[in-house]
Amino acid sequence: VDKNKTSPFDSFYNDLYEKKISKFISSNISTENGFTLFTTYPGLLCGSGYSHETKAKGDFKIGFFFDYTTGLPVIPGSSVKGVLRSVFEKDITPKGKNVTGEISVDIVKWMLDEIDEKKISDSLDKQRVKFIVQEIFGDAEKPGTDIFFDAIIDIGLTGDKEFLALDFITPHYPIGLLKNPNPIQFIKILPGVGFRFHFLLKEENTSILKANVKEKLFKYILTTLGIGAKTNVGYGQLISEKDYHEFINQRSESAREHKSKSDIENLHERKASNWDNGSKPGNKTYEKFETKTRIELWAERSKSMQVEGQPKPVLLVEDGTWIEASSLEKEGILTGTVYSYSSGNAKIYLHIRGHQIEKSVTGKFSVNQKVQLKVTSITRNKEGHLRDINIVVLKS
Prior knowledge:
Layout: H1 10-18, E1 33-39, E2 74-75, H2 77-88, E3 91-92, E4 98-99, H3 102-114, H4 118-122, H5 126-137, E5 147-148, E6 151-153, H6 155-158, E7 164-169, E8 184-189, E9 194-200, H7 211-225, E10 238-240, H8 241-260, H9 263-273, H10 284-290, H11 294-302, E11 333-342, E12 345-350, E13 358-362, E14 370-380, E15 386-395
Antiparallel strand pairs: 1-9, 1-10, 2-6, 3-4, 5-9, 6-9, 7-8, 11-12, 11-14, 12-13, 14-15
Helix pairs in contact: 2-7
């Protein structure tokens, strides 16, 4: 909260940000199946779809989900179930409905390969994946066999620290609105907070996925896709307990080494490693914890995946078609990849390094198709950094 401005909510939110987890009593959910995952930079936003605004000055404009009993943030079980189910229904019908198809089968098989369940992966086809979806998640007529509980903060593993913070989103579309941007403030969960995901996983003699396999698969899905709002820009990314502690240990070692050097050495090292931009070259755990987005992680893990005769379900693997933003010119040629298509409307990711820009176009396309585009206009800020770009399709 800006302390130079006052509102009836300032003291409430300031007190909320300063609270530590030890001030709360944790909920105890005892299940055989579950795991703890940690939030990463920039944090986690959950409950943004809930109605919240009081219309009063100084109050937040975006909702947030707190547990009524403990007062702590929780991730609703319905959200957990929705993210997990989405992997099994990645194909899109002409009417825009998500269903189980060939792309969905490829993704599920790839993920099972990644968790060393190749024997199960090799046995899958579309009908068997549909059977898994029906058994686990159910439908309007028959509920699934498994139960998905709310994910709660693991106080023991997180430790006694602050866990909430203020953040902003500044909508700036169309371009004309940039003249008078209106930042919208919201609450986020800080990086380094552990969430315990609980499940009641059942298995029958006919089950294709046993309980232990489902638990491993669910963990892999959540660490690959993330959860909550704004995952496309890095929020909601999760890492395992092991990866989190490796990051903490590496950061502590780095801090000790840094402290033992002279101020001049530290200054040169900061410039050389570009810490001011939030990156540590060569430190993969740090990069994953601090800067990697869902799309980057997904693309990294998909490089070796290719089912003969079928398109890759995962997009945006950098190749020679990607260009630097600084080299963009009006009337220049640019490549994009179609990641969504329905009824003549497609969404395309532009191949611009360091940027995640998507554009909507019309025409006849297929998912994963690379499209040649012509740049019609470019908008840059005062420092010359790319702010927006308009394109038209050259060839489809």
